[in-house]
Design a protein that fits this description.
heterodimer; A: 321 residues; Pyruvate Kinase, Chain: A, domain 1; 2 domains; 61% helix; B: alpha+beta; ATP Synthase, domain 1; five-stranded mixed beta sheet; five-stranded antiparallel beta sheet; 4 helices; 10 strands; extended
Chain lengths: 321, 200
């Protein structure tokens, strides 16, 4: 009975112009939602909507699963790489406020979207850093890793981008790959200070925008002579190559590759975490939407059945009377 | 008014547990104050980003008396092999020669070459073969060793080392360009270091 009513309902939707305006005004409550001249809203539309929402929910659930399994793999690697930068920070300290002429901002982002706000966070931080470190006689450039930050930064600071590298995560990240990348960056840009912007993984739902600073060997020497945070460096005996500058050069390059390696891993880890939570909340949203749509659908169906019944009964009673 | 008093009282206790899901605890907030100030001036609405110092455990100060043990951090890109381990002595393969590090060693920065890193702890000696890297010895008897690759010496296959050595020697002889020659030379150096690590 219900199915028959539905089928009729569908047919009526196909010929909305046939229903008379006088009749439709009688059923005012379903009139509110329906387009002009239609007695009640079609269940067909709602059914299609429900189907698409269900499909979206399936997709987001699958994406969440994928992100969760990728996260587990990359999280251990990111955590294991955390020891790598600490000796450098212990030795050279960290001086984000250093005043240099040529700064290069290395923005680490992801290639794929649908991962919450991590890419816009790193872009926002990079923009402010750019503003912070630019001034008269100062030059600040961007080096961009990842498609998403490139898309955002190319809009307003196209001239400041000196290098952009994408498809970093096609293969699982390893140190040799990242050090080749670091070498590429070092060869192609001139810098006094490199500022690496990435999102450090804290937990699945939390990531910390972080800035690591790598100084060029000349600046390290200048700062060490000036005292301050790097003043202790002069007390170290340097063994290895002939000159101190050579060792510092090697040290700075090695430091950059190590910090970049950790940064890229942390960012990839935050990306998966953010994607997981974003996909979790969107599947939950899809579920809520589905509930609401089901309610509307059932209500409409019931309303149309009631209308049919009233019509039949009133028709029968008119014949009788 | 006092309805929230219990929650307020409980909060300091909760602080320790609510962090359970995070993977490493940030140490006491260490900020570069001039950086934070400059940041606030440019963008008052956005929180300044963290700097690596915020995640570092503060290192101990230089003690006045000579400590009996050396604290070693030995890290690789994919693992922390030793983390703040107290040992008696380490011998690192610096480019200038093997360098023994005891507690109270003078502060040094040394580049490493392929060779054997040995960690002496009482009567136990752990030997690693490291490819390259850096060693920082701080004045507070803390040694940081960073290597690109390291394996325990007992896991090296002697036959493969011999074979690799032969291969690279052959390559060195037949190399024509400078790049090929340099690559083969590196291979020969690493394999002969491996060989001497196994035999010596």
């Amino acid at each position: 009975m219900a199915m028959a009513a539905l089928r009729r309902e569908g047919r009526r939707f196909a010929t909305p112009l046939l229903s008379s305006p006088i009749r439709s005004s009688l059923i005012s409550h379903s009139q509110e939602q329906a387009p002009n001249g239609v007695r009640s809203i079609s269940t067909q539309v709602v059914r299609n909507r429900m189907k698409s929402v269900k499909n979206i929910q399936k997709i987001t659930k699958a994406m969440k699963m994928v992100a969760a399994s990728k996260l587990r793999a990359i999280q251990t690697r990111a955590e294991n790489s955390r020891g790598l930068w600490q000796p450098f920070t212990a030795l050279l300290g960290d001086s984000p406020s250093v005043n240099v002429k040529k700064s290069v901002i290395v923005t680490v982002s992801s290639d794929k979207g649908l991962c919450g706000g991590i890419n816009s966070t790193s872009v926002k931080i990079s923009r402010i850093l750019h503003k912070l470190s630019s001034g008269p006689e100062k030059e600040t450039k961007y080096v961009i890793l990842g498609e998403k930050a490139k898309a955002q930064l190319i809009r307003d600071s196209k001239d400041d981008i000196s290098l952009s590298i994408t498809e970093l995560q096609k293969n699982p990240l390893n140190y040799s790959q990242v050090s080749v990348l670091a070498d590429d960056i070092l060869k192609n840009v001139e810098f006094d200070a490199l500022r690496i912007v990435f999102n450090k993984f804290h937990s699945v739902v939390q990531f910390m925008p972080t800035v690591s600073t790598v100084l060029s060997p000349e600046i390290v020497e200048r700062e060490a002579e000036a005292g301050g945070k790097l003043g202790e460096l002069d007390s170290y005996e340097i063994e290895g190559a002939e000159t101190k500058g050579e060792v510092l050069q090697n040290l700075a390059e090695f430091q950059f590759s190590c910090i970049l390696f950790n940064g890229v891993l942390e960012n990839a880890c935050s990306e998966q975490g953010a994607r997981m939570s974003a996909m979790d909340s969107s599947s939950r949203n899809a579920g809520d939407m589905l509930d609401r749509l089901t309610l509307t659908y059932n209500r409409t169906r019931q309303a149309s059945i009631t209308t049919e019944l009233i019509e039949i009964i009133s028709g029968a009673s008119a014949l009788e009377g | 008014m006092f309805r929230r008093a219990t929650t307020l009282l409980r909060r300091p206790l909760m602080g320790a547990t609510s962090r359970r899901f995070s993977t490493d605890l940030p140490a006491a907030a260490v900020e570069d104050s001039s950086f934070v100030e400059a940041w606030k001036k440019v963008s008052p609405n956005v929180d300044p980003p963290k700097t690596p110092l915020a995640y570092m455990k503060p290192r101990p100060a230089t003690p006045s008396s000579l400590p009996s043990k050396l604290t070693v951090n030995f890290v690789l890109p994919y693992a922390s092999e030793l983390s703040a381990k107290e040992v008696d002595m380490v011998i690192v393969p610096a480019t200038t020669g093997q360098m023994g590090v005891l507690p109270g060693h003078v502060a040094t920065i040394a580049e490493l070459k392929p060779g054997v890193l040995s960690v002496h702890e009482g009567n136990d000696v752990t030997k690693y073969f490291v490819s390259s890297g850096f060693a920082f010895i701080h004045a507070n008897s803390v040694a940081d060793i960073i290597a690109v690759e390291a394996v325990p010496v007992d896991r090296i296959d002697a036959n493969l080392v011999q074979k690799g050595l032969q291969d690279f020697t052959q390559k060195l002889n037949s190399a024509t360009t400078d790049l090929e020659k340099a690559e083969a030379q590196i291979g020969v150096d690493v394999h002969s270091a491996l060989n001497s690590a196994l035999t010596g």
